Structures are given as structure tokens and as C-alpha cells.
Known about the structure:
Blueprint: H1 3-17, H2 22-39, H3 49-61, H4 66-85, H5 111-118, H6 126-141, H7 145-149, E1 156-157, E2 162-166, E3 172-176, H8 178-196
Antiparallel strand pairs: 1-2, 2-3
Helix pairs in contact: 1-2, 2-4, 3-4, 6-8
Amino acid sequence: MKINDAYQRFIEMMLFERNASLLTIECYKKDLSLFINFVKKENAEDLQINDLKNFISELSCDGKAATTIIRRAGTVKQFMFFLQKENIININTSSLAMPKRNQHLPDVLSTEEVEEIFSSPDMNKDEGKRDRAMLEIMYASGMRVSELINLKLKQVNIDLGILKIIGKGSKERHVPIGDFAKEYLLKYLYEVRGKYDIHRSQFVFLIVEATN
């Protein structure tokens, strides 16, 4: 089976059988897209447990936060477990030691807590549309706050839904953001940003006048 077909079956299973929220589904899509792009394998049958181990190592070397690594590794492990149950692959995912969260890090937010944060911006206001777009982009891409506020228009490929991120040491990476984040970004760009771009700014996110 083609790996993209297996990916689609997994997403449909999580959506229709597990009743996962749209926010959770977007998270799964992003994590698995990153993994599939990393392994560069055409067929799901060719996946090995070392692919996940190498993916975790790559995330760690890239400086990702422990909570991000744990979430992405957990998504891929669920995907592999699904493939195992479907008799597409034959590997023992239970033997994989998952990365540990540093005890000094705060607890990971639950899906409900994340959804509450995302629903807090008032979408009837310009600043709310901007803030929601910023939250969606940061959550979908794993960007640092400093990377987000310095994001430039030339780094955004709307058609492909990809951001070109310039990180520490001028290291460049291309990050997919998914349809959900893209929708809110477009809403901000078309409905809000043009009102405040009086100086033809190169940055995506601008200071927006607060309204009552």
C-alpha cells in the first residue's frame, strides 16, 4: 500500500471511528506529513521501527522542545500501530522507548485546554482574527515566538501551505501548516492585514488597532 493511502486511511479512522476533534486531526496530519517527508518511502510496508527512532533523533537535533518531540513521536507510533493492526507492517511498536519529558517542563495542555485557548480570540475583531491566525500557525508549525513575529511575506507559500522558516544559526527549514491554519491565515491576510499595511511592511503579522 502506498504510504499516502495508508496515511489517509489512518486519518479517516481517527475522524470517523475515534471521533477525534478537528484540532486533533490537524495535529495528526501535520505530524505525519513531517514524518512521511522525513522517511521518503513510497510504500507503507517498507516502514521500520528505526524510521521512528531516526525521526525522533532528527527532531532532537533540530532543537525541538521535548513536548513537541513526544507529541510527534506519539502520533507516528499510533500510525504504526494502526498499520500493524491492519497487517500492513509487522513490527513491535510496544518495544519502542518513547522520549521522556523533562521533569522541569510544565504539563502538556489537554486538547480541551488547547481548544479553549484557540477560541479565546474574538473573531469579530481585527486583532482577534490576527491572534487566531498567529495561534494556528504557531501550533501547526512548531515555530518559536521569535520566528513567528519575524515571519515575512516572502517566507509564505500560500498555494502549497508551506512556510520557509529561518531558525537559529540561519538554518532554513520548510514547514507545512495544514489546511486549518492556512484558512485562518488567509482570513487575516485578506480581511485584516491590508487595513494596517500603510508602510508596505515585509512582515506577515502587524500591530492591529484594538477595538471594543
